[in-house]
Design a protein that fits this description.
Elements lengths: L13 H25 L4 H12 L6 H4 L8 H10 L7 H18 L2 H21 L4 H13 L14 H4 L4 H21 L4 H6 L1 H11 L1
Helix pairs in contact: 1-4, 1-5, 1-9, 1-11, 2-9, 5-9, 6-7, 7-9
Length: 213
């Protein structure tokens, strides 16, 4: 995926940056649901998530999601549902909030953070050789998720078409997508995002979404 040039600057206010990061979480949640049900995925949304996850040292905040908020449009639309402007999909919302919960558990586990960092460094080297969305890279991302985050007591149980979920590379793709959700959940926390703010600062989130629309 090529970065938009000139890059579209993200708003400087914390709420807008939190909204963009949170959009990445819910974009991942939405794609997990789409993969599990249909086996298909929105390519632009997918490429954005995977690129963000393998690029562990981006040049700027905007570079994380490819330079333009429309690369996170799927997630931004989910946030519109979260603040009550659109119909919310309860399954996708459950995946999204579960990713935030997992991120908090990961953040408190220094050993696992180090282990995950090592694994993602290996994945980045793979991506430089094969390309970010090559199936070897996706398989490694899925393996990294399976060996770290899926060992927590809190686990994300993905619902969908059983035959689809068992098809070739589908478990790896789903786990890679969940890993991308964790990447954006960590970014959201780094930008000052907290779960209580989703309840008590909903107006700020609405204004941020207006700025990004």
């Amino acid at each position: 995926m090529t970065t938009t040039t000139p890059i579209h600057r993200a708003p400087d206010n914390p709420a807008a940056r939190q909204a963009l990061a949170l959009a990445g979480v819910f974009q991942a949640a939405s794609l997990v649901d789409e993969l599990a049900r249909t086996g298909q995925v929105d390519q632009r949304a997918w490429d954005t998530l995977i690129q963000a996850t393998v690029d562990t040292n981006p040049d700027s905040f905007e570079a994380i999601y490819g330079g333009h908020p429309n690369n996170l449009r799927r997630g931004l639309d989910m946030l519109e549902a979260l603040v009550g402007r659109k119909q919310a999909d309860p399954v996708v919302l459950r995946y999204g909030f579960s990713l935030l919960l997992l991120m908090n558990q990961l953040r408190k586990n220094d050993n696992m953070m180090d282990q995950l960092g090592d694994k993602l460094s290996h994945v980045q080297h793979q991506a430089e050789h094969f390309g970010s969305t090559h199936e070897n890279v996706i398989a490694s991302l899925g393996e990294a998720y399976q060996e770290t985050l899926s060992t927590f007591k809190t686990r994300i149980v993905v619902q969908g078409d059983p035959s689809m979920l068992q098809s070739r590379m589908m478990p790896e793709r789903v786990r890679a997508c969940l890993m991308a959700g964790i990447r954006f959940a960590l970014l959201w926390h780094q930008q000052g995002g907290r779960r209580w703010k989703l309840i008590f600062q909903r107006k700020a989130l609405r204004r941020a979404l207006d700025d990004l629309s």
